[in-house]
Design brief:
Helix content is 43%, strand content 14%. By secondary structure, the protein is an alpha/beta fold. The structure holds pyridoxal-5'-phosphate (PLP). The site of pyridoxal-5'-phosphate has 11 residues, from α9.
Amino acid sequence: MNKRDFLRTAASASLGVLLGDRVWATYADLPVDRLAQEEDFWAAIRAKYRLKPDYINLESGYYSMQATPVLEAFIAKVREINYQASYYLRTTQVPDKAAVRDKLAAMAGCLPAELCITRNTTESIDTVVAGYDWKAGDEAVMAEQDYGHMLAQFRLMARRYGIVNKLVSVPIDPKSDDEIVKLYAGAITPRTRLMMVSHMVNITGQILPVRKIADMAHSRGVDVLVDGAHAFAHFEYSIPDLGCDYYGASLHKWLGCPLGTGILYVRRDKIPALWPVYGDHRMTDDADIMKLNHTGTHPVYTDLAIEDAIAFHNTLGTRRKEARLRYLQNYWTGKVRSLPNVIMNTPSDPKRACAIANVGIKGMKPADLAKTLLDKYRIWTNAIDSEPAGVYGVRVTPHVFILPKELDTLVKAIAEMARAA
Ligand SMILES: Cc1ncc(COP(=O)(O)O)c(C=O)c1O
């Protein structure tokens, strides 16, 4: 393999190659829900990650580490690009990045011309919100449960252009999708132009019925921006099937890419009206999404390693991953949900959540809960203390390398703390 090919395809493999043909043959025909419970299979997947023995990492919602084959491929790219230096940047950088974008677009189910690589969801969402042609008095709709910094970007627009932001509050256990759709519909007025919807609420793990919300919003002439930070490569969907106009996601969360990778999707007909945040002297065609993606000189090896993460992800496959993640979440939440003094901040309907769940203990501050979990039980989680959303607890996010016996430690810890509460 020459250097160029190495830069492009270091980690492509099948599960047979990854696990050994004999091991994989045992599992190849199992339905995903059965495979989700085959611990020997998942132990083999776990072996592809380097895990710190000091704690059980239940905080993959922030950043999910690269699997070892991806990390090694990434490091090789860092070395190679450092070696080739500006020669690489001036020769094959652009086509190499375009090839990565093609693979991401295939994964997202959209046209390559509708997608660009960003640093993260923050950049993707902010590019849309700041690129909108706002007029004073325009309205935008969003939820108390959306990510704080994304809400802050709308507040900036309110200060700068005089837009008005309307916030809804999404119930954790709705009776139906309709209840949520009506909530968003109720915030629309004739001045509403844009609605932001979280695909998965970051503090609770709740999956929102994005397609139904988008259809309703479009029927009222409102554009839909989806914050998919936690959704991409977590569970199966295609972006166009969601029916939204704009979509942003981070790839260092569930795709297991190096830090600083994300995507921005803009439906083709929506590209011309968006203003770029960064100027590009070529003044790229109005209908070209790359006009929104002038990055300047940047760590391109990070973007190139997305290809390795996709290859690793595809060996496992989204459906197998989703089934395992949902299994792990239900495994522990099912054991604590009905305990006295336990507050579950995550939908009980399995379809409305996947890996992420949030649990609180009556009378215990989230920070104390997270600290006790770490100090006494060696479990790493994230304290969520959100007054606007009314969510108090710790966010627990197992990745595919987590084992049920580690979740047993969490269950024991919660049961003991709840008894003492
Ligand atoms: C819902 C949501 N949106 C946006 C972000 C920002 O993601 P990033 O820091 O990768 O830009 C996060 C981060 O956790 C998030 O949970």
